[in-house]
Design goal:
The protein is α/β, with parallel strands linked by helices. Helix content is 31%, strand content 17%. The two termini are 31 Å apart.
Length: 756
């Protein structure tokens, strides 16, 4: 289905006796004449009604350039704790869905192996590997203080994008430069800053787990190039039966490198918190750069960490440039400041530098303090703007972290805490793999097997919540899990009608009905829809919202008159409303719809760079339908029944809108044309919807719809999940209207079903 230009046109036909028709006064007639003479759209007999002059597009925010990771991401603090708690619940669910963790994957045994102890006198270091997913390993080093007994505080340390990761060495020249600048104190600790923080925290009495990002150090089952440098789609990894990361199939299943990395962090936390020598109530997390992203994402999703210290990452500016820091849906409508706010009221410490975090003291920290103030906990959030240094986790920044951990993990050390030098570990002393502990399989076979396990496990999770015809409670659980996922993916329910406005453009008396071409606006989101209403003068109180894959112009024939199926509805007394959805009809200045959904300018072929910051075109078109439905639902004419029709490629959009409309719709009549998201082969397809296949595809949207009547064309049978859901809800079974072979083959049957 080709995409069309943004904006929605509404045409309403209203009877003379209706309130909507009362504006036909002498003054209104004069105003209309002036408008027409002034260049407002005037329909000839050979064109469909317009709300705007030819060549003019709606004033709609969605026609502006898409947002990308280098945009501006301010956080507006909530006015009350109640408001925040509701927002936090929705945002946390969005994060879980984006990471492929809704519901959480089955936690299989970690089978942790700890070996190769190195004794450094006042602390020890051991090698660790454990399974996050079956056959997929988290690798790292465990630092422990000597001479301490009982349950100790602990710190998780993700390392970030430093060369060679856990094995990083700044080199002699670089560390001497940093010493001169005051960024480091000692040559050995300055050359090995990632080890330095682990050693110092261990000396302060903490158990520290320093673990690898994907593709770094010992975590090579998924390569560095795949995890952090992916740029072009791989046809050999786009098979419907055996796909890989970044493919359309992976995005449709919400499977991402970032999701795997986040789950690795969760499993590392599981293992650390369950150790006999760790106090599970005193665990901190700290990392810088990409490790900062891992830190605040983990702490936002999981309430077990008591303290978070993401360094040089949280800001209103650049949000994370690596593929491992991005995922579809992650930052749609939000940003790193708000995501970090989910940590409240737990202690949150940050540092800024001469990078994208340079303004943290004035943009981000004040808003976070306002939020923490709702918990009476303003002293638990801080940021040190060390902007005389570039991007870093240097000695000065680490010192700020030590003091923060000392206070909030109750370590009891006298301040100031001065980091001392140490003897660095060699790569051989750090590496977990050797002859006794051989490196596991990696590369393409591992990638495919990991994806396969994730897919099968997600399927089992969803099978466990399938609605059962004789069990209404099962339907509620399905709505919570799958409906909740689609709430996050689609990002909107039925709007409050009081937030919508209507600008009346034209009204024409067509004999037996009125025709209106107007604009419906949703100012809160900067959206404008060109709409058309056809309203019979003998109105029966019912409205059919007719959504066509070709736009509202498809309601009219070559002479500009309603087509037979639309005329049949009007003759039966039903009002018909339609609109151009985003990138249909009047949204295209040149009349030519784009052939693919728009993407950001980032040349790397990764959906997350676009769909991690912007709703999919599919979701935005669903928003348009919801706006039109909400306007009619709240209109002063008070329609007794609202019917929704989706045809000629619009069936899936209508199904999604129905799923998000609660009980606003009486009848849903759609021609699916056999559509399934699983058949899509490009994330730039106009119908692409990340996560849709993971959550039962189009049948799930039909099962979530609560319309008392459901008419289906384009299906060989009613999908079993739809039949079970409707029976569990006490709704009538769906009625089939046969398999359709052309755009309008189902229309007579669907219209007859609507008006019978």
């Amino acid at each position: 289905m080709a995409s069309r230009a943004p904006g929605t046109l509404l045409i309403l036909i209203t009877p003379r006796r209706s309130p909507l028709g009362r504006f036909v006064t002498f003054a209104a007639s004069i105003a209309l004449a002036v408008a027409l003479l002034s260049g407002f759209p005037h329909r000839t007999c050979a064109e469909a009604p317009r709300s705007l002059p030819a060549g003019e597009t709606p004033d709609d925010a969605r026609l502006k350039p898409l947002k990308d990771l280098d945009g501006y991401f301010p956080f507006q603090p909530p006015k009350s704790l109640t408001e925040w708690e509701q927002r936090a619940k929705e945002l946390r669910r969005q994060l879980h869905v984006s990471q492929g963790l809704w519901p959480m994957p089955t936690k299989t045994p970690a089978k942790a192996v700890v070996h190769g102890l190195v004794d450094r006198g006042d602390y020890t270091v051991e090698k660790v590997y454990l399974e996050s997913f079956p056959g997929h390993y988290v690798t790292g080093n465990l630092y422990r203080p000597k001479g301490k007994t009982g349950r100790l505080p602990a710190v998780l340390c993700p390392h970030g994008h430093w060369s060679n990761g856990r094995f990083h060495d700044h080199g002699e020249g670089e560390v001497r430069r940093q010493i001169v600048q005051g960024a480091e104190r000692f040559e050995r600790s300055g050359r090995h800053p990632l080890q330095a923080r682990c050693v110092q925290l261990a000396r302060m009495g903490c158990v520290v787990f320093h673990y690898d990002m994907l593709g770094y150090a010992d975590s090579t089952q998924l390569s560095f190039e795949l995890a952090h440098r992916f740029a072009e789609q791989r046809p050999e990894f786009s098979s419907p039966d055996a796909w890989g990361f970044y493919s359309p199939q992976a995005e449709l299943h919400m499977q991402s490198i970032m999701g795997v990395q986040t789950y690795n962090s969760i499993r590392a936390l599981d293992w650390l918190s369950q150790r006999d020598d760790v106090d599970p109530d005193r665990i901190g997390v700290t990392g810088a750069s990409g490790g900062g992203t891992q830190s605040f994402i983990l702490c936002a999703l999981d309430d077990r960490p008591a303290v978070a210290f993401p360094a040089v990452m949280v800001s209103t500016a650049m949000q994370g440039g690596c593929t491992c820091e991005n995922a579809s849906l992650l930052r749609v409508g939000t940003g790193n400041i708000e995501i970090a706010a989910l940590i409240a009221p737990r202690p949150l410490g940050m540092t800024g530098a001469d990078d994208w975090t340079v303004e943290i003291a004035t943009k981000g920290l004040p808003e976070l303090k306002s939020l923490y103030g709702l918990y009476d906990a303003q002293n638990r959030v801080m940021a040190a703007p060390l902007i005389h240094f570039g991007h870093n986790y240097n000695y000065v920044s680490r010192a700020v972290m030590y003091a923060f951990m000392n206070e909030h993990l109750a370590l009891g050390h006298r301040e100031p805490i001065v980091e001392e030098d140490f003897e660095p570990l060699s790569q051989e002393e750090m590496s977990v793999w050797n002859d006794d502990h051989p490196r596991p399989e990696g590369g393409a076979p591992h990638e495919r097997s990991l994806i396969r396990w994730m897919t099968e496990d997600a399927r089992q999770q969803l099978d466990a919540v399938q609605p059962k015809a004789d069990d209404p409670a099962s339907l509620e659980r399905y709505r919570e899990v799958v409906g909740g996922a689609f709430d996050a993916i689609l990002g909107r329910s039925l709007p409050d009608p009081s937030k919508l406005t209507r600008e009346k453009i034209t009204k024409q008396d067509k004999g037996e009905y009125w025709l209106f071409a107007d604009l419906i606006r949703y100012p809160e989101h900067g959206e404008t829809l060109p709409v058309v209403f056809l309203h019979p003068k003998q109105w029966n109180g019912e409205v059919t919202v007719w959504i066509d894959g070709r736009g509202k112009a498809a309601l009219f024939d070559a002479e500009g008159d309603p087509k037979p199926h639309i005329r049949k509805l009007l003759d039966s007394g039903v009002s018909v409303a339609s609109t151009d959805l985003l990138f249909q009809g009047e949204f295209n200045a040149d009349g030519k719809p784009p052939t693919v959904a728009p993407t950001v300018s980032n040349p790397r072929e990764f959906a997350g760079y676009t769909l991690g910051y912007n709703r999919s075109l599919f979701a935005q078109r669903v928003h348009d339908i919801l706006t039109l439905l909400a306007y009619i639902h709240g209109d002063e004419q008070q329609a007794e029944k609202i019917h929704l029709v989706g045809v000629a490629g619009a069936g899936p959009w209508a199904a999604a809108a129905a799923a998000q409309s609660q009980s606003a719709i009486e009848s849903l009549a759609i021609d699916t044309q056999g559509f399934r998201f699983a058949a899509l082969t490009s994330y730039r397809d106009a119908n692409f919807l990340p996560g849709a296949v993971r959550y039962d595809d189009l049948p799930a949207l039909l099962a979530l719809a609560r319309a008392p009547r459901l008419g289906l064309a384009g299906e060989s049978q009613v999908p079993p999940i739809v039949r079970a859901a409707r029976k569990a809800a006490g709704l009538a079974d769906a009625e089939l209207h046969g398999t359709v072979t052309d755009d309008e083959g189902a229309l007579p049957s669907l219209v007859d079903w609507l008006v019978k």
